[in-house]
């Protein structure tokens, strides 16, 4: 896809996520990586439900604003993920209700904060580590994200929300939706006896559906 098509894709999926209630107000951001390493990212203080292609920011590899409206103040952690995950071509970061609720809990295991409930959770999300809390816009968050991005296609920012990457924006959106639905299942199950996927089942899924 060329740059114009990718800009249109961001507008389309931003509206879809907003319409499904996964994005609200001016929270959250989307990005895609171009072949030259620059990224297109949603602008600061913009609503994903009301974007135009011309608004989308273009940012260099070192974070310099090239074109469009001023970029999201969280563009720096998008760049950190892209640096560590060469196969990643798109990132979705939202503040959807159930996933954020999980991010606000205390977890015994911060390296994987959701139990293995479904096959598609394993296939599209994998292990979900919790990144320690940093205030929005704190550049130290980029280094914390960088430390986990190489091994994880999704991570959860404490008291904030998920970052999900994918080989295309469509795949990143689908994975994000799977994460939110898994978080919803987590709360629906509550304290009831839980049938987790076994280690053998998880290994089989990872071997059959790598990446």
Question: Any overview of this molecule?
Answer:
The protein has 211 residues and is α+β, with helices and mostly antiparallel strands. The chain has a single domain (3-208), classed as L-fuculose-1-phosphate Aldolase (3-Layer(aba) Sandwich). The chain has seven helices and eight strands. The protein has an eight-stranded mixed β-sheet, with helices on both faces. Helix 2 runs parallel beside helix 5. The longest helix is centred in the C-terminal third of the chain and has 21 residues, at 169-189. The chain is globular. The protein starts with a helix and ends with a helix. Belongs to the aldolase class II family. AraD/FucA subfamily. It comes from Neorhizobium alkalisoli. Keywords: Carbohydrate metabolism, Lyase, Metal-binding, Zinc. Residues 8-187 form the Class II aldolase/adducin N-terminal domain. Pfam families: Aldolase_II.
The helix fraction, in percent, is 25-40%
If strands are numbered along the chain, what order do they take across the biggest sheet?
Answer: 4-3-2-1-5-8-7-6
Mean pLDDT: 96
- Beta content: 5-15%
Per CATH, the architecture is 3-Layer(aba) Sandwich
Sum up the overall morphology in one term. globular
CATH level-4 homologous superfamily: Class II aldolase/adducin N-terminal domain
Structural class by sheet pairing and helices? alpha+beta
| Poorly predicted tracts of residues | none
Radius of gyration using CA atoms only:
16 Å
- Distance N to C terminus: 22 Å
> How many distinct beta strands?
8
Main sheet record: 8 strands, mixed
What do we call the CATH topology?
L-fuculose-1-phosphate Aldolase
CATH class category label? Alpha Beta
Give the count of structural domains: 1
* DSSP summary: helix tally: 7
What letter string, H or E per element, gives the SSE order?
HEEEEHEHHEHEEHH
EC number: 4.1.1.104
Keywords: Carbohydrate metabolism, Lyase, Metal-binding, Zinc
GO molecular function: aldehyde-lyase activity; metal ion binding
Catalytic activity: 3-dehydro-4-O-phospho-D-erythronate + H(+) = dihydroxyacetone phosphate + CO2; 3-dehydro-4-O-phospho-L-erythronate + H(+) = dihydroxyacetone phosphate + CO2
């Amino acid at each position: 896809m060329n740059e114009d098509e990718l800009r249109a894709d961001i507008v389309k999926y931003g509206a879809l996520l907003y319409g499904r209630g996964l994005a609200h107000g001016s929270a959250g951001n989307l990005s895609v990586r171009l072949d030259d390493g620059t990224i297109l990212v949603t602008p600061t203080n913009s609503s994903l439900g009301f974007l135009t292609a011309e608004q989308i920011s273009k940012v260099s590899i070192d974070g310099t604003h090239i074109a469009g409206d001023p970029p999201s103040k969280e563009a720096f952690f998008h760049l950190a993920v892209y640096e560590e995950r060469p196969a990643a071509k798109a990132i979705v970061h939202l503040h959807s209700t159930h996933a954020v609720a999980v991010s606000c809990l205390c977890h015994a295991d911060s390296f994987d904060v959701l139990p293995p409930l479904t096959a598609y959770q394993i296939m599209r999300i994998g292990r979900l580590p919790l990144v320690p809390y940093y205030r929005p816009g704190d550049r130290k968050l980029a280094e914390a994200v960088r430390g986990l991005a190489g091994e994880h296609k999704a991570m959860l920012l404490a008291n904030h929300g998920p970052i999900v990457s994918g080989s295309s924006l469509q795949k990143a959106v689908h994975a994000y939706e799977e994460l939110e639905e898994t978080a919803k299942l987590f709360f629906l199950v509550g304290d009831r006896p839980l049938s987790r996927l076994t280690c053998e089942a998880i290994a089989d899924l990872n071997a059959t559906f790598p990446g």
